Amino acid sequence: MTQQVTQGIKVSVATGFEGTFYKDHKLQYAFSYTITIENQGKDAVQLNSRYWKIKDALNNTVIVEGEGVVGLKPVIQPGEQHSYNSGCLLLSPFGAMHGYYAMVNFSSTRKFKVAIPSFKLSAPFAIN
Fold first, then answer.
1. d(CA 49, CA 65)
2. CA-wise closest residue to 35 among 75, 4, 65
3. Cα–Cα distance between 42 and 27 in angstroms, integer?
4. Which residue, 26, 41, 94, 95, is the most exposed by fewest CB within 10 angstroms?
5. Torsion of CA 47, 8, 33, 109, to 10 degrees
6. 21-72 confidence digits (pLDDT tens)
């Protein structure tokens, strides 16, 4: 598990390999990830948007930006956490992702970014 704390918000990531399949005549590698966002601060925060940079071993890069996570803009109270599951497709059995969440502090209305630590995606059969 990969973890990082930014301004009192802890982001933890666990990954999984889901299998391979063909899409558009190309072999795709499917990966899942579970993210837990824990508010270790003293103010309630809301996650408003996300930014991802996804890169595979063939040097293909995809940028993903959007509102919330899996259709939600969770409010996370102090001492609480929000977890969600998602996934991505790669054209190689190895890759990595990182990014950030854009959040707002409810007490100060200050907007800030929370780093999503870089984490690796790897198919078990391709590991030496």
1. 7
2. 4
3. 47
4. 26
5. 10
6. 998 899 999 999 999 999 999 999 999 999 999 999 999 999 999 999 999 9
State both tokens at 122.
């790897």
Share above pLDDT 90 across residues of the chain, in percent, rounded to a whole number = 93
pLDDT of residue 9: 98
What is the CATH number that goes with domain 2-119? Answer: 2.60.40.1470
Phi, psi of 9 (to 5 degrees): -110, 120
- So what's the pLDDT on residue 127? 66
Strand-pair partners of 94: 122
Report helix, strand or coil for 2: strand
For the chain, what are the domain ranges? 2-119
Pairwise CA distance, residues 13 & 96, whole Å: 12
Dmax over CA atoms of the chain, in Å, equals 51
